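User: If only I could read backbone structure tokens as easily as an amino acid sequence. Underneath my words sits a plain record pairing an amino acid chain with its backbone structure tokens. This is the protein in question:
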Amino acid sequence: MAGPRAPVAALAALLAVAAFTCCAVAEPPPSERSALLAFLTATPHERRLGWNASTPACGWVGVTCDAANSTVVEVRLPGVGIVGAIPPGTLGRLTNLRVLSLRSNRVLGTIPDDLLQLPGLKALFLQQNLLSGPIPSGIQRLGGLERLVLSHNNLSGSIPFALNNLTALRVLKLDGNHLSGSIPSISIAGLSILNVSDNNLNGSIPKSLSRFPRESFAGNLQLCGDPLPPCSSAFFPPTPSPGASPGGGGPAPGSSKKRKLSGAAIAGIVVGAVVVGLLLLIAIVLCAVSKRRSAAAREGPKAATSAAAAAAAPAARGQPPPASSEGGGITSSSKEDLGGGASGSAAAVAAAAAGAAAGEQSRLVFVGKGAGYSFDLEDLLRASAEVLGKGSVGTSYKAVLEEGTTVVVKRLKDVAVARREFDAHMEALGRVEHRNVLPVRAYYFSKDEKLLVYDYLPNGSLSAMLHGSRGSGRTPLDWEMRMRSALSAARGLAQLHTVHNLVHGDVKASNVLLRPDADAAALSDFSLHQLFAPSTTRAGGYRAPEVVDTRRLTFKSDVYSLGVLLLELLTGKSPSHSSLEGDGTLDLPRWVQSVVREEWTAEVFDVELVRLGASAEEEMVALLQVAMACVATVPDARPDAPDVVRMIEEIGGGHGGRTTTEESEGVRGTSEGERSRSGGTPPAAPTP
């Protein structure tokens, strides 16, 4: 019997080892951890990154590991206030590094040889720093490099011909430096983006690069050739005319008549110049008077756009960004690596972003997980955009950036708080992370413009899904989806109330955005009411009765709005739509109460649910009771948001995915993978 037992025991041991191996937390090798810590220790930085030897390196801010967490593959530290040279013997020890981004800092010195020892490096983003010296020819050792962005530094010398050895290169941006000499004949088949503008380059543009637009070479006064003007007029003297003296000395015989004609021409030119000068002087005086008269009226989008175009140009020419912002978040002030030519922009978004660029020297401030994005005001200015909706606090736009990232930009109007209070409030909103809440990712504040940036969720709003194109062949929202949306909204509200002590202030169907996973709808536009003067116009038919008198939003008024939302899901009627009662909105709770009072409860429910053959009458009646409790006239009679979550979970059973307990234990720190599946997280790659 000993024989058969031995293999069994060995198999059991192997299984135990395998189980232990699977359960163990993988970590990069100690050499990589020490290299990262040595880099951070030796480099002054203004923003605390929280790198700690006692925590896993793969969880550090800006550090990304491979799928097995066995090695560091990306280091992204944009705008964290790094000052000084890159210490030798640090980042060069990350042998499997594929992406390095230190953009928008104050990195000094030359491009270190350390970085040229990384064989797997695919993307290097060092723009908007203070790097000096030449581009080292040793850069050819980075044979797999696909993106090289060194824009807006103090680099000098010539562009090395060795760049031709980077056969995988797709993006090369060297604009805004002090590079001189001629452009080498770079013939890389896959190169799709090139920018060497605003340098001191001269000579003719190689034919291999003539396919790129004029903007790629602008700002080099001595460059010529396609796509710029031809070189013959600037660099080669014209062919002498037959009557000209070969030696350039005295005039040829018989040229006295030509001398007289030349004198008359000169006199004509002088007279013409005097006349033109007088006309210009008159025009300048008239313009000054006109500007003085219209200065007070310049507030339309066209004025903002034109003013910004003039102000944004020098910013795009490589002015180094300020060291930090009042908001304390990661900031972005540089054009990103993947941008190509300017794409078509919606005029309103152009006015918003451009007006912001024209204002005070402020920057886009990223908060919370917004650090995963990599764009700035210039990107928003160039973005292709469309209006998503106009609300009481501002207009929302869908902005598609040049590299393909899509975000939502909300242009606020009538903000009533100062910069310091605005910054502090945005930092608080950026800290909210929950799959049923859509937090602010970035913001911009200047005297003339206030912008908020959110993740874009392509599935649209609950309002559009519930009310859009009724009766025109669309698929109605079934009961399962309505229950999941109700539970998601309640969970998001409970998270704001209990964890962050925030009042939403504007709970309504258009602020419930649908994610791809059915039980992860998200509440958006939360807690913006603190930025504006008190008003009773917001939220329409969703506002609680006491808000009309006190103008004070509370947790209980949020619950009332949630109750109206539940009634909207049950009845299919929107409280924001006009009614025949003369007040512009439908008092949905009062209408439901009147129908139920007549014992016609079945008449309350949406006719589309009846057509779908919904067989959940008991659940619908139970949710109606929860909704009516939420819209009680007396605030103290309304349940708290966590109680509403519990009651809906008890009704729905299998509708709601996770339970309240699971929410409190697991969802508060939503995993990156879950957020990426739900479409609500910034892109992790390939932007720096």
Q: What stands out?
A: DSSP finds 18 helices and 23 strands in the chain. Residues 256-294 form the longest helix (39 residues).
